[in-house]
Amino acid sequence: MRVLGLLAALMLTLAWPAAARECGPDATQADLGDCAGEGLRKADAALNETYGRIMDRLKPDPEAARALREAQRAWIRFRDGECDFATIGAEGGSIRPMLVAQCRQHLTEQRVTQLRRYLSCQEGDPACPVPGAG
Question: Can you give the residue ranges of the Lysozyme inhibitor LprI-like N-terminal domain (predicted)?
Answer without folding.
Answer: 26-115
